[in-house]
Amino acid sequence: MAAALAAGRRLAAGRARAGPPVRGCGQAAGWGRRERSYWRALRRRVLGPPAPPFAAPCQVGAPVLRAAAAPVAPERLGGPELRELAEALAAGLRRGPCLGLSAPQLGVPLRVFAAELPPARCRRYPPALRRAHRIEPFPLRLLVNPALRVLDARLVTASEGCASLKGFSAFVPRHWAVHVSGVDEQGRPVSWEATGWAARIVQHEMDHLDGVLYIDRMDPRTFTNVSWMELLD
Questions:
Q1: Please, are residues 226 and 170 in contact by the beta-carbon 8 Å criterion?
Q2: What global pTM score does this model have?
């Protein structure tokens, strides 16, 4: 576990190789040196760089999001580092708020994810959408070393976003029903037959554990900045 956390620090701190600047794009293209404010620089000097699990999800471009996560060793189940990770995932879900969150998104390259759909969040979806995609509440679930089996291979397309691609969404096809099994942070068996929206969330998070993002599976013509109307207003 300690080795995985150290690997997470190295992956999260990794930098893309420098390339030629893009004319007219400047810093927006990601080239050039990142500047910090005085207070951010001072805080960094005093406290040092942040260490995983991070309080906020890594954003696309972080190497940890594109690497396959490692299984959690059996002897680490129930240990303090895994409990800390489980708490960070639960807190991140509710802080987001988001419906699913994986360990790699918090900079930890381990095969762990958490998901939750509270009733209050479920009621925010339009009734017609809830019926069409079987959007139903479910309690917090955390899975360590999960394994996925497809129960219903029908592909259903719906809009997805991601805490690691803030401000964007796209339509993505997913299997209608899946079964996921594993253990929780204490090593207790977990088995979940997920249908509709829950199955979509599970497949999204399982992709994260393999270094796959929804943009790899999306219909590219539907990729959207969710604030595009406000930006034109």
A1: no
A2: 0.83
